[in-house]
Amino acid sequence: MKIAVRALGILLLLGALAAGAAQFQMWAVSGRIVLLPLGQAWYNIDPPSLNLVQAVIERHIWPPLWDPVLLTILRWPAWAVLGLPALILLIVPIGGRRHKIVNEEG
Question: For residue 100, is it within any domain?
Answer without folding.
Answer: no
